[in-house]
Design goal:
alpha/beta, 5-stranded parallel beta sheet, globular
Amino acid sequence: MGYDKRLMLFSGRANPALADAIGDKLNVDPGPVTLKTFSNGEVYCRFEESIRGADVFIVQPTCGNPETGISANDALMELLVMIDAAVGASAHRVIAVTPWYGYSRQDKKSAPREPISARLVARMLESAGADRVLTMDLHAGQVQGFFQIPVDHMTAMMMLTQYFTDLDLDEDLVVVAPDAGRVKLNKKFADRMGADLAILDKERPQQQVAQIGHVIGDVKGKTAIIVDDIIDTAGTLRAAGEAVKAAGAKKVYAAATHPVFSGKAFENLAAAPFEQIVVTDTIPLRAGAPDNVHVISCSTLLTDSIRSIFTDDSVSEVFQGENQLF
């Protein structure tokens, strides 16, 4: 019958710049969609052209965006209503492209009577009608287990290691894991860089509060790279950088996938002893960031993954099978 699949790309208000960058690489313009917030705070969407029978990719990390005036919870709700509208408009498949998966840190009960919010978000996306989810560097890989639909888990590790390789840093490198939970990721990072590995002794007495004990490993006279998945208030990262510097590191860099940058993050980063803080654009960078913050785009990585999903090719080949990090 001469039927050809159609790929359609749409963006929510959380990170339209990332959607535009993906669209440029796919040679597909983001489709027209009306998005607004009513005076009572409810969000609304309407696709302005037919999406019947198309594979609809909705780019919407669940983060706030001061430029478009939405909060993290607005972004999540907007993603849900966009998925529901696409399902109701007879899309063939609906894929949620949410490189920053909100609530991912609440993946277990840390105390009695707490929610497991990462599981709740997974159920909400499934209930709305998403056919699959494309995400990046989940805080804990087991969050994939909360879904009963396919989850394509991307990683920025190759992008970040390539960036530091291109910087041509000193040969005497050490990669520093900010806590024991990040050791596996940092070990892979160190192996790709041909660097040594060190670990920080960190305790977290309560949410968004961390205490750095001492550095396990040799960093004296070396160039150190502290690698994590998220930078939030940057209080922990600042303390980590100061601890590594105090232990004798010559230079200290930081790398992370998701620049949440809430609260006093910019003040902490400006005061921290980092040569550079390298992040990706999974979350848009709000105005006022310190000069040592450098953003590299994950649009090429997401574009390759979207293309593989659309053509039913192997997504893991984008990473040579190395995207299951932890």
